[in-house]
Amino acid sequence: MKHQGVGRDLQKQLMAGWYRELAEGEGPVAYLFISGNVVELLRAFGFRVVYPEVNALQCGVRKVAGDLILKAEDQGYSSDVCGYVKNDIGLVASGNVGPFGKLPKPDLLLCTYSGCATYLKWFEALAEIYRVPLVMLDVPYLRAEEPDPHAVRYVAGQLQELVAVCERISGKRLSRERLSEILDRSRRAEDLWMEILDSCSGTPSPFDAFFEAVFFMAPIYVLRGTEDCVRYYESALAEIRERLEHRIGPVEGERHRIVLEGPPPWPHFRAFWDLFKKWGVCCVSSTYCRVGGIWDRGFRHDPSRPFESIAEYAVRCYTNLSLESRRRFMREQLERFRAEALVIHSVKSCRVFSVGQADTRDYFSRERSVPTLFLESDLADPRYFSEAQMRNRIDAFFEAQEHLRKGVPCS
Amino acid sequence: MPNPLEAIVERCRRASIQEDVLSWKRTTGGKAVGCFPVYVPEEILHAGEILPVGIQGGGGIDTDLADSRIQSFVCSIARSTLELGLRRDLDALDGMVFPNICDVSKNLAGVWRRNFPDRKVEYVHLPQNPESAYAEEYLRAEFGRLRESFAELAGRPISYESLRESLAVFNRNRRSIQDLYRLRVEKPWAVTAAETHLLVRAGRFLPKEVHTSLVEEGTVAAEASSRRRRDGLRVVIEGAFCEQPPVEWLETLEQAGCLIVDDDLQIGRRWFDRDVETGGDPLAALARAYLRTSPSASIRHGDEISRSQALVARVRRSRAQGVIFAAAKFCEPALFDYPILRAALEREGIPYLTFEFEEKMSVFESVRSQVETFVEASLFFA
Questions:
Q1: Exposed/middle/buried for residue A202 (C-beta within 10 Å: 0-12, 13-18, 19+)
Q2: pLDDT tens sequence across B144-196
Q3: B133 to chain A: which residues are within 8 Å by CB?
Q4: Distance (Å, rounded) from C-alpha B123 to C-alpha B328?
Q5: How far is Cα A407 from Cα A400, in angstroms, rounded to an integer?
Q6: Is A409's pLDDT higher than 80?
Q7: Dist. CA B321–CA A323, nearest whole Å
Q8: How many other CB atoms sit within 10 Å of the CB of residue B186?
Q9: What is the pTM of this model?
Q10: How far apart are CA A273 and CA A277, in angstroms?
């Protein structure tokens, strides 16, 4: 087999290259969020793009988040607010140097308010520090299944206004041709990424749509619109096709197929994964790997409708969906990927995910008879992860699942 | 005979859903809709002859039922409001409106829809980009959508004429509260912060017209009162714009030597500091008022001056000598602003004291001793 390991290795190289480009490259710098972002537009002006969320998760994985969070708490940040924000504030206080190198200062803070209200507070804090323009792209919450026409007009109007800001900061006029090329590359990468996610309908699933996807998804969120991104997904898809051909999956002997809702506990990612591996669990779908955008329902960035498709991506991203819409999405995923259970990882930091999750558990277990496991920790703050407690709950849940499967009633 | 102000305050203290909302519904046969803080365009409900009811949590109640639906790291008002709903204590409300003040409120709309399927649940997205030239048209359409939705609930159309009349009724109500606050700046001993809080709070349950009269009468009575001038540290309270601290907490602050000359308690009840235009298109007028004349608040983005500049200006305007930070536990918007505001006060040399409160708080001794120390340090060692 010649493609195995490509997805992870190439991802690491690309991320390292991207951070190098941030540190050494030229051109104006924009800070941007992941969910429903409008990076294609920024790329058309040649912005280098920094994603504070990605920096925060990198700090989590590399186990420096705890100290950075404490630095922010020393400045008066409460122990009860989002750990990503505190990680970032701590990072700024450390000269903006992380395990990935040094980050450039922003020329533009572009807050895409797609669901997460903490985004606003985060960039307001950075605007105080950097004293650079903060542009708010206000994306109305998708309260019903379809966006209101006036909400779409509002977002589209703001995109036009954003173009003027980008032109001023970058000193370049918007080239429609360039934007079309970027959108076309986004679309191609999205097609390939969806093919990877769709492969999880196979048995065994060749791919874990949570534990592996968090690595495989990095290029679609960080490098979307670039040729590197398209090439990455071509290579990654080759790896997945090879796995399908040889009937190999991410866990040996797949025993349980689950859908996972919520973000990972980054500082304890390995330990968390191991707790599931032990039971032969494969996540055949997850909401987190769609946290930036949802392509399952046919959406693609579209060079023939540049602004409309950029707006649509922003409005329909996962965190901007109403609770009912999120539940419908989880239901679709449970059915489509023939999952036996839903696992909800509720993180304190992220209220946009977590508020309503307990009600969602109640909905799936009581109204839909879907076995549902509810776990709590955090995505950034290492203090909230209790491995023993996690293990107890995961073991008890899958033990019960296996009893049920054997037809043995469990007490 | 009790002093007239105290009698009015006592009347306000008793205002409740069980007493006032139910009796209003019995008398008028009308509908009532709960409005989650901080700001909801209640005028539109009023124009449909629907009673807007301000939601402010459940005080110190246990949240056994709600705990199975909302995690413990979420603010108390979200949990206690859901608890009241699940206990059927909010059955007088035919609907609820949740604004986009924070992630909790947004998602609570969905929790509400599932748990109370027979009630109308509305979500209103207030613009966070007021600088956009497209914000007004958007908000006007959003208010138009609410108008249709509430007309459906009321079973009758909501005319522009009735909307204009409602704007005038609310203008007068807000003016009465602003007058009361102005009196506090001039003569803080004449009416305490706790009394003001109770007077304003009653507007959650009472019809606006009735409430306006109470506040106007209360202000007149306070102006005429012969209470002795009291000295103390003039302070501004910042951070209590959504969930409200217990009244006893406010009383403790005052007893410990503070003269609270301004605050952001229940700021949604006096959201605009000037009248909304009552001519022309009433929905457009309300949208413009929201975009151009809303107060500085942690849950809103896009003011020309920053939150810290606004706080310092508020301190100067009310001739305050210090700030009491009072954030509800787990309230992200307030807690995120705190380090930034605190740094601004330090730059300006304005003393401050910091609290996190919860609805459930019942022991105030440590609050008292902290405030006493703060007052002494600020007055005597400044």
A1: middle
A2: 999 999 999 999 999 999 999 999 999 999 999 999 999 999 999 999 999 99
A3: 157, 161
A4: 23
A5: 10
A6: no
A7: 45
A8: 11
A9: 0.96
A10: 6
- Residue B282 tokens read as 């009433």
Choose among A388, A390, A315: nearest CA to A346.
Answer: A390
CA torsion, ordered B1, B4, B10, B15, to nearest 10 deg: 130
What's at B49, amino acid-wise? E
How far apart are the CA of B129 and the nearest CA of chain A, in angstroms?
6
A54 located within any domain: yes
What residues of chain A, 71 to 100, have a C-beta less than 8 Å from chain B?
A: 75-78, 80-82, 85
The answer to whether the CB atoms of A76 and B338 lie below 8 A apart is: yes
Dist. CA A382–CA A66, nearest whole Å: 6
- Region A17-39: what's the mean pLDDT? 96
For B78, the token pair is: 């979200």
Does B141 contact chain A (CB < 8 Å)?
yes
- Say if A249 falls within a structural domain: no
Portion 61-120 of B in contact with A at CB < 8 A: 68-71, 73-74, 78, 100-104, 106-111, 113-115
Contact indicator for A251, A207 with CB cutoff of 8 Å: no
Nearest CA distance, B303 vs chain A (angstrom)? 11
Residue B310 has pLDDT above 80, yes or no: yes
CA distance A15 to chain B (A): 30
- Chain A contact present for B289, CB below 8 A: no
DSSP of B193-214: HHHHHHHHHGGGTS-HHHHHHH
Q: Interior CA angle at A170 toward A168 and A172, to 5°?
A: 85
Assess B303–A contact: CB distance below 8 Å, yes or no. no
Q: Which of chain B's residues have a Cβ under 8 Å away from the Cβ of A118?
A: 103, 332, 336
B54 three-class SS: strand
Query: Is there a contact between B51 and B207 (Cβ–Cβ < 8 Å)?
Result: yes
At A180, is the secondary structure helix, strand, or coil? helix
Q: Is B142 within 8 Å of A150 when comparing Cβ atoms?
A: yes
Which chain A residue is nearest to residue B99, measuring alpha carbons?
A: A141
A142 contact residues in B (CB cutoff 8 A) = none
Among A402, A403, A410, A405, smallest CA distance to A279 is for A402
The answer to whether A67 contacts chain B (CB < 8 Å) is no
Residue B225 reports pLDDT greater than 90: no
Would you say the ipTM is above 0.90? Answer: yes
CATH number assigned to the domain comprising residue A120 = 3.40.50.11890
Strands A97-98, A101-102: parallel, antiparallel or unpaired by DSSP? antiparallel
Alpha carbon of residue A369 to chain centroid? 28
Confidence band, pLDDT 50/70/90 cuts, at residue A161: very high
Residue A16 included in any domain = yes
Within the 307-366 window of chain A, which residues sit less than 8 Å (CB to CB) from chain B? 322-324, 346, 348, 351-352, 354-359, 362-363
CA angle B331, B334, B339 (to 5 degrees): 125
| Contact yes or no for A85 and B307 at CB 8 A | no
The span from the CA of B178 to the CA of B274, in Å, is: 9
Q: Give me the total of CB pairs closer than 8 Å, taking one residue from chain A and one from chain B.
A: 163
**Percentage of the residues of chain B whose pLDDT score is greater than 70:** 99
Which residues form the domain of A73?
6-174
Question: Is A340:A402 a contact under the CB 8 Å cutoff?
Answer: no
* Cα B333 from Cα B371, distance rounded (Å): 24
End-to-end CA distance of chain A: 46
Does residue B228 have a pLDDT over 60?
yes
Q: In this structure, is residue A378 part of a structural domain? A: no
| Angle subtended at Cα A65 by Cα A59 and Cα A71, rounded to the nearest 5 degrees | 130
**Number of domains, chain A:** 1
The backbone torsions φ and ψ at residue B198, rounded to the nearest 5 degrees and listed phi first, read: -70, -40
CA distance A346 to B62: 23
